Amino acid sequence: MSAKIPVSILGATGTVGQKFVRLLAEHPWFEIVSVAASEQSAGKRYGEIVRWREGTPLPERIALMTVQRAEPSIPGRITFSAIEADIAGEVEQAFARAGKYVVTNTKTHRMDPDIPLLVPEINPDHLNLLARQQRERHWSGGIVANPNCSTAGLVLGVAPLQQAFGIEKIFVATMQAVSGAGYPGVPSLDALGNVIPFIGGEEEKMEQETRKILGSFASERITDASMTVSAHANRVAVVDGHLEVVSLGFGRRVTPAEAVRALEAFRAPGDIATLPSTPARPVEVDSRADRPQSRLDLERGNGMTVTVGRVRPCNLLDLRLVLLSHNTIRGAAGAAIQNAELLVARGYVGR
Amino acid sequence: MSAKIPVSILGATGTVGQKFVRLLAEHPWFEIVSVAASEQSAGKRYGEIVRWREGTPLPERIALMTVQRAEPSIPGRITFSAIEADIAGEVEQAFARAGKYVVTNTKTHRMDPDIPLLVPEINPDHLNLLARQQRERHWSGGIVANPNCSTAGLVLGVAPLQQAFGIEKIFVATMQAVSGAGYPGVPSLDALGNVIPFIGGEEEKMEQETRKILGSFASERITDASMTVSAHANRVAVVDGHLEVVSLGFGRRVTPAEAVRALEAFRAPGDIATLPSTPARPVEVDSRADRPQSRLDLERGNGMTVTVGRVRPCNLLDLRLVLLSHNTIRGAAGAAIQNAELLVARGYVGR
Amino acid sequence: MSAKIPVSILGATGTVGQKFVRLLAEHPWFEIVSVAASEQSAGKRYGEIVRWREGTPLPERIALMTVQRAEPSIPGRITFSAIEADIAGEVEQAFARAGKYVVTNTKTHRMDPDIPLLVPEINPDHLNLLARQQRERHWSGGIVANPNCSTAGLVLGVAPLQQAFGIEKIFVATMQAVSGAGYPGVPSLDALGNVIPFIGGEEEKMEQETRKILGSFASERITDASMTVSAHANRVAVVDGHLEVVSLGFGRRVTPAEAVRALEAFRAPGDIATLPSTPARPVEVDSRADRPQSRLDLERGNGMTVTVGRVRPCNLLDLRLVLLSHNTIRGAAGAAIQNAELLVARGYVGR
Amino acid sequence: MSAKIPVSILGATGTVGQKFVRLLAEHPWFEIVSVAASEQSAGKRYGEIVRWREGTPLPERIALMTVQRAEPSIPGRITFSAIEADIAGEVEQAFARAGKYVVTNTKTHRMDPDIPLLVPEINPDHLNLLARQQRERHWSGGIVANPNCSTAGLVLGVAPLQQAFGIEKIFVATMQAVSGAGYPGVPSLDALGNVIPFIGGEEEKMEQETRKILGSFASERITDASMTVSAHANRVAVVDGHLEVVSLGFGRRVTPAEAVRALEAFRAPGDIATLPSTPARPVEVDSRADRPQSRLDLERGNGMTVTVGRVRPCNLLDLRLVLLSHNTIRGAAGAAIQNAELLVARGYVGR
Known about the structure:
By secondary structure, chain A is α/β, with parallel strands linked by helices.
């Protein structure tokens, strides 16, 4: 146990915070040494104040921890952040200034030009932004972010096609789970038997983040990918799992068979494949006519695999397809943990 | 009562058949005089064999009717057809040959070049195909069809924009209710907490029917509208109501404000506005940020109004919008009844 | 219009408040003349601050009303109250003191010994408590309450059996809709694909209110019915409609056939039958094996009819049955409006 | 691998059959050597005809198996049966006659006086009926059954109280998942936003099976427990998990604290505790006010643990409580597998 890297969790009582607790409780490299939450929770036992909603029991060791204030002095060399966006800016920067590596799921810093927006299977080189970040901000630590939940599935599902053929246009309509809005989040009177065709800021996030993640790194800056993205974001009565229907336009004609081959050939590059959270197959193609489905295909790769199906021609662009990702794992806590693993693998955090 | 036009219903025990019974029971022009169903039902009381699932009680008069075989000799000058597609061809043609006007919700004849695929607010002139139909097929009656449920909402929601600006491209992703699949239809294990990104034949229907309905009639033939349509059809856990997110490309730049004006200005033309089933506003624009929603906006215009919302620019085409229609009323039984009203208004069936 | 009785609504922006607006907008006797809500809403247009969620459009006349503070000086001779329980005591009493008749859906005063807890079809004589209330409290107005939503269906469904046979024991398990908790109310993460076997205070309300409502009035006091009630309250993923399974024990053996006869014979007594909100059949028996069902049988009697089904022997008590009621109509706004009608019919409020 | 006991699955393509495949694929004692299904499936690859709906991938080895006819000659010393009830009688008996041990989830033989209806934690001695079964029926094999899914949770949840205090009366109302009805099973139009207060035969099963399972074995016969059970069975919009609210009457006064102590003290007896499928705690008490909940507490003990909550006094009987069990694991496939393990542990099937 003592050989593990001590980590802390900010916003530990929320939905994503609980997922961090669950996923980190058994992690081979990391050990939770502090949990932080809001002022009014500080000083109390985690087990007493959390409204634990994960399907597995709250680990006894964590339940007994005293909740801390979110101050950089709390133990932990890596800090997983799931705090509210309106306070994340100040808090996360304070941790980075104090020498901590902040792995954040919060949106606040995602589009900062010197903060890497990481999907390790796609753009691990963006991590090199940390040098500029530390130099310009005079930080001994740093901040790395993972994408918004609906972006996470999209970029991973199309990255193999981007790498193989170059994508020029992405049309995407999402059908997103309610867990993406946290707890209490979406009222049941809005969710039951309904579709809500609006999620505040979501379409803009997908359109911007996708271009940054798929962009190129050179001379200490990211050049956005040149594609155009148009998103329609919808909330549906699903607990977990964002399903997205996508049309893609390429610079040249691409057949469904070519696309399937590229998707099936995709593997995490080099050392990324050996990270504990990287699934054997980051992208899987399901050839059944009516798959992927939100409820049935969610758990592949422990929630880190994106499933793609229905690859077929599009009347307007080149290809149509369907993709599914686990919004609270690949789209939130799992993604952040994989990013932290990358920080270790690349030597930013010593073992 | 005696002044009403006698009508019959084929497939009267199914989901759409029951909706016909409900909507026609109080109709000002029509009176149900016979109900027909499968061989094994014939000879029994309708009330004994139907598994009535409408929210209002089954009218006593209809409950007591003896179910007929679907033969042209049954009473009724207009025949509403909701029979299975695999037998609809032969049966509906037999009725038309025998001098009946068949108003069908079944897909079988929709794309026949001499059969009008009608949305009275959009293409009432297509009804003139009946002359050719009667001459070439040697029928004294005829067949008119209404569109597939997901097409019905789409074409009405975009028709005002087609008329005002000319549409070149339509990208549409649907989130369709389970009632569209009839009863028993979609298993609950497929629907609960799930999205099924596939509905057999649905995307093709939307792509073909839309172009026919929005096409032009001249010299006894329909010329399809020249637009390109790409559809992604999805089933969601909603009882009634097809919600569709749409991107549109026009021949010229169209602003959201222009589009909203055209949508709000849209009215049913001439005598169509006076049909009993035509709503005061066939298309309504809801300006609230998160509307229309499947559960809340479904009943406008007694289920015959299409609600449009979120009219905004599209990064790829010109405009994005959301539209909602009632799939078993505007998309099925209500549409057929409105078509029958048109037959009367235009003198094909005397009062 | 001028002949109608002016009424006000307290808590007009909430779920029940909106239902009041909807039901009263077309009421033959009442006319909404003021709407009141919280401090921060006062002074604004109702249409601007309400998040209208009824399926029918917000009436333009109401949308334009300026929201008032909940003070007795606002216009309206009858006041419909849907305000929060924690402030209802003081506010409702102030109105009654000022000469208004307060018809409340809030729980605060329900169990007060001098406040009638009314179901007009069952205990209209309890209204006579008003004399004592006015004398002892020195009020020129008064307060009448309707039961909690889950009690409302139960008491009406069993009242015919109580009157015919005398009930000694009631065992009831509820499956209640989320709308009973208002908006935002139950989080979708709690409701979707789930049952929550706990609703705070609900079981106690059912056990106490049932005995008061079915109790007898004499000498200006209510004597509770002597039955014992044991309730299990559960929340299920249903939008509207409380379904309850019930076992009943009587003082003597009662067969299902006798019970069905009593249920079917039940009618609203005397002048109650002529109130606008009283349904033709306050209780209907559905003899189909799998009915009533929450989604299909809810709208009977415009939501004021309780449907009873599956009347059969019980191994432990005498009879088992299932009953369904509309929780926001018969269990809230509709019940209060019917109570107000009773106040008019009995002369407390002049026409 | 070669040391494992070869087993076969009858009805392998259905919902329970698939669950057998999933749970047995990794079983430490058993190895699937044949899968059988209906006539029309025989001869085809399992992977080609099954509509696999488990969340984990279909094991490749099983996918490649050729589906057999359900004839006793197929390989496998233990036969797991999930075949249709109408053919189960003849088929299962043929297997038993041929020397196979049939572990059936089908209802057909459950109430036969010489067939043990087993819950290993409760009545392992009922297995001794096999001697009579083999002698009287002239079988070299035998049949053992597990209870209906709604009975399984009930009996396990109350068994500790029965053993400690003796139960005289059970009132139970169920809220059952749709997976209990198999696939396609419950139509989504029945399940969505609805409660169906009827499941054919379910209440009778609960009332009869409970008394047999909790009964005593002596002189080669079961004497039913003398309690009275009254059940109300309901279907709700939940995928997996039967939640049941229960009132219990004992021969003497039992406090909630006493009951909780008995529930928490309950352990599987002797060798039962060492069976691979027996959970560490067959019954767990959750003291949170609103638990257990269908979606959150289902997976305890790999779906074999029954969770009990809300132990409190009952106004009519002695105690009220809520219990939850996994209907397709503890209530079906998992229960059968545990029964097969018992057959091995007790030496009926050699290792």
